[in-house]
Amino acid sequence: MYSGDSSTTLEEFCNAFSASELALIAVTDHLTIKGAQLLQERLGECVVVGQEFRVKEGEMIGLYIHERVPPGLTGVEAARRIREQGGLTYIPHPNDQRRTSMAFESVVALAEKGLLDIVELGNSKLPQLTLSHDERQLLLGAGVSFSSSSDAHVPQALGSSYTTLPLLPLSASDLRKALMDPACRLSHSHFDPPRPWKARIVPSS
User: Fold this and answer.
1) Helix H or strand E encompassing 60
2) Burial of 97 (0-12, 13-18, 19+ CB in 10 A)
3) Which CDD domains does the annotation name (predicted)?
């Protein structure tokens, strides 16, 4: 409950994760990594610490980071800060006009600079995939991999979309290699239940 767009507590998250069949999960609250770090302390290395934030071109995520990335940077600046931490750059829900998502042209620009690792192809809040076949082929040629994510803001959405990997990654480089493996499989379903807002105090980030 460290992200202003979710009312899920740490306990609710832990219970939902334990009840799921997931072996690894990235926690990417908006503008903070505190919640992800606390969950990693409780659940161990099955939690990847990440953060979602807005750059000038749209929204971006850093995975395997240990320092918060400030919003308002350019995509290039933010990607470099993520890479300096040994992390992976991840673009969530590109082309989604309902949100401040990154347009495909900006995604390609990052990829061509060698600063993009993963693009979210499946997102449970969307009924369709985020990229066309031609767009995927263009990014594949630039060395970009893809994932499918639940984008869960409530416990029951956890694992509604997911990525099946050939091996459990133990590091950022492991995840990068696993996503590029031909045995990697993406599973996407449209599932976006309402968020039950309660009278809770959200900790300061």
Assistant:
1) strand 58-63
2) exposed
3) PHP_HisPPase
The percent of residues above 70 in pLDDT, for the chain, comes to 92
Q: Are 145 and 179 in contact (CB under 8 A)?
A: yes
Q: What angle do CA 195, 200, 204 make, to 5 degrees?
A: 105
Burial (CB count within 10 angstroms: exposed 0-12, middle 13-18, buried 19+), residue 150: buried
Distance (Å, whole) CA 170 – CA 178? 10
- CB–CB of 69/78 below 8 Å? yes
Determine phi and psi for 120, rounding to 5 degrees.
-80, 115
Looking at per-residue pLDDT, the higher value among 49 and 1 belongs to 49
Distance from C-alpha of 80 to C-alpha of 202, rounded to nearest angstrom:
30
% of the chain with per-residue pLDDT over 90: 85
Domain 50-187 has CATH 3.20.20.140: yes
